Amino acid sequence: MAADATSTQSSDCARVGQCARSHSVVIALSCCALATLWLRAHWPTRAQSLLCVLVASAAIGVSILIQTNPVVGLTGAANYAVLTAFVVSFHTPRLLTAVWSVGAVTLGVLIVHVAADDLALAVCAAGIIVLLNVFVAFACRAMLVLIQPDTHHGDIEQLTGLLHRDAFYQAVATLLASRSRSDDRYLVVVAVNIDSFSLLLGLSGASGGNRARVSVGQALREVVRHNAIVAHVSDHDFLVADTFTTADASPLVERIRGAISVTPQRLTASIGVVCTPLPPLAAEPPDDVLDKLIAIANQAIEQARMAGGNQVRYVLRPTLDEDPDDDEPQPDNGRIA
């Protein structure tokens, strides 16, 4: 009888061990499959990210339940905090509820097993894991609130994360209407045009063009001041507006050129810069002022492109009440970089 019981127990343990190994293999293969979604050249879609969360939630639950020692399983339950941080940062509270529901069921099973030997340990461990997940959720939410830009999501161009044209006009109008610092006396508008963009599209396709736009957008954000206004207004055109104490915008322009030149694609750009005193701008509507300044900057870009590209044309103190064609960059007004 004893031998039969021992044999039966050994057989059960073998089956449990084989089942645990099978689950471990499935979990490992699932993790590898999910990893391929994040190793590609582009981000996963929202549906793919949702799938990753659901699979990861189930994988964590199964992996800690198959542990022979339930205390080890309780330790592994802390992994739900990582999943909590991801869901709070990129998904909705409804998905977080689903993840926490799976975690609660898993934690409940572990508590029952641990409580059979040590009730105090089970209660304390469960409390720590719950508090950890709640703390991570609130911390991530607070971080998102702190770093949330003042710009409304509808004003953001989705590819580059910069303002679109209408939002750029609104931001510049606000800047002109609310200027109160006596040390800022000039408005500078910088128009940036990626050189040979059509050739880039022909060689690398739409994905290559998108990567170039994103790279230039990131480069512009990194070199401008925090209160500068940056926009992506067309396929290969960007705009920057800022106020300066002097009419010399060359330090900003050189930073822009340098940042674009070190992008992964080693891009170059033709740049038109318009610098005009702030006080006279109050006499005209902001949109009309900006239309004229951008037209002058675009004309400067055309001259830089005709000269071979990868150059800068400056226009200082243009006359806004005349046609933009009358404000061509002159040797004494600007310089070629």
Automatic annotation (TrEMBL):
Keywords: Membrane, Transmembrane, Transmembrane helix
Coiled-coil regions, chain positions: none
Any single Pfam family the record assigns to this protein: GGDEF
Regions that span the bilayer: 20-38, 50-66, 72-88, 95-113, 119-140
Biased composition (Acidic residues): 321-330
Superkingdom as given in the UniProt entry: Bacteria
InterPro entries referenced in this protein's UniProt entry, alphabetically: GGDEF_dom (IPR000160), Nucleotide_cyclase (IPR029787), Rev_trsase/Diguanyl_cyclase (IPR043128)
Name of the molecule in the record: Response regulator PleD
